[in-house]
Design goal:
This protein is of the alpha/beta class and 256 residues long. It contains five helices and ten strands. The protein has helices at residues 23-34, 74-81, 90-110, 145-155, 228-235, and strands at residues 2-6, 9-19, 39-42, 59-61, 125-126, 136-138, 159-161, 164-172, 175-183, 189-199. Strand 9 (175-183) and strand 10 (189-199) form a beta hairpin.
Length: 256
C-alpha cells in the first residue's frame, strides 16, 4: 500500500479495501491477493481475534460431494438456501459459497487446523441447523482457528489495519472508492482510496470485551453492536436484504 500524510490524517492507497477482518473478510483478502492485487484489510479489532470466530469454533460447514453421502452436492445447498426472501441466487451459492468450501477447508488443514476424521479417512461430519445433510466438519483445535487464518492472511502479503473502525464508505459517481477510518486506540484518522471496496462487516459479533464483569461477552448480539456496518453499506447505496425477516434489530436509545 502507498501511505502519505493528509490534512485529515493518514492517506492510504490500495487496489482492494476489505472492511471487516472476520472469516469472510479474510477470505475476500486471500482471493484478491491470489489475483495479484494490493489488499488492505481493516477492522476495529485485531485480526488474530476479530469476527464471530475470534473466540474459536468447533465446526466448519462444507458440501464435499462424497460418494454415498446423501444431500452432499451443490444442488442440495441451493435448494436449502436459495429462498425468495434472502436474495441468494443459485449462481451466487454455486460460484461463491460452494466453490470455496473445499479449497478453504484444505487451506486451513494444511495450515494446522485439525479436522476430525472417520476410521476410513473421511472428514467427520454431522447434521445440524435443520439442514438436510451432514454438512458440519468437526474441528479439534477450534480455539485457535482465527489465529491460523490471521497467519495465512499476513503471509499472503495483505496489509492489515488493526483497531481501525470504518466510519464512512466513500463513493464517486455511485461507485465505492474508499473509506474513512478511526483508530479506536490512538484516535488517529485514516483516509483510504481503493479501486474496489468489499464490505465484510457482518450482521453480528459474538465477542465484546471489558463489560462490568471484566469478562468478554459471548452472545449473538452484544450490547455495543448498533448495526453500523449495515448502515455504512446502505448509506453508500448498497441494497440491504433480510433486515425485516432475519429477526435482528438495532438498539435505539429510549426504545424497548
Amino acid at each position: 500500500m502507498n501511505t502519505s500524510t493528509h490534512p485529515l490524517g493518514t492517506l492510504i492507497e490500495t487496489d482492494v479495501l476489505v472492511i471487516g477482518s472476520g472469516a469472510s473478510g479474510c477470505g475476500a483478502a486471500l482471493g484478491a491477493r491470489e489475483q495479484g492485487l494490493r489488499v488492505l484489510l481493516m477492522d476495529k479489532g485485531k485480526l488474530e481475534s476479530s469476527g464471530c470466530i475470534g473466540g474459536g469454533n468447533d465446526h466448519y460447514m462444507a458440501i464435499l460431494d462424497e460418494e454415498g453421502v446423501a444431500h452432499d452436492a451443490a444442488e442440495d445447498l441451493i435448494k436449502f438456501y436459495a429462498k425468495p426472501l434472502n436474495g441468494w441466487t443459485p449462481a451466487m451459492l454455486r460460484n461463491g459459497w460452494y466453490a470455496h468450501m473445499r479449497p478453504m477447508l484444505e487451506k486451513l488443514e494444511a495450515a494446522g487446523v485439525k479436522f476430525g476424521r472417520t476410521p476410513d479417512g473421511r472428514y467427520l461430519r454431522t447434521q445440524g441447523f435443520g439442514q438436510p445433510g451432514t454438512w458440519w466438519v468437526h474441528i479439534a483445535n477450534g480455539m485457535t482457528i482465527k489465529r491460523v487464518m490471521a497467519r495465512i492472511v499476513r503471509e499472503s502479503g495483505a496489509d492489515v489495519l488493526d483497531r481501525v473502525m470504518a466510519v464512512k464508505i466513500l463513493t464517486d459517481g455511485g461507485k465505492a472508492c474508499g473509506a474513512l477510518g478511526w483508530n479506536v486506540s490512538t484516535g488517529e484518522f485514516y483516509i483510504i482510496r481503493a479501486k474496489t471496496v468489499v464490505s465484510a462487516q457482518g450482521r453480528s459479533a459474538t465477542r465484546g470485551t471489558d463489560n462490568s464483569t471484566h469478562n468478554p461477552y459471548n452472545v449473538w448480539m452484544y450490547p455495543y453492536n448498533t448495526s453500523a456496518g449495515v448502515v455504512l453499506g446502505y448509506d453508500a447505496g448498497a441494497a440491504v436484504t433480510e433486515l425485516d425477516t432475519y429477526q435482528r434489530a438495532t438498539m435505539l436509545p429510549g426504545q424497548p
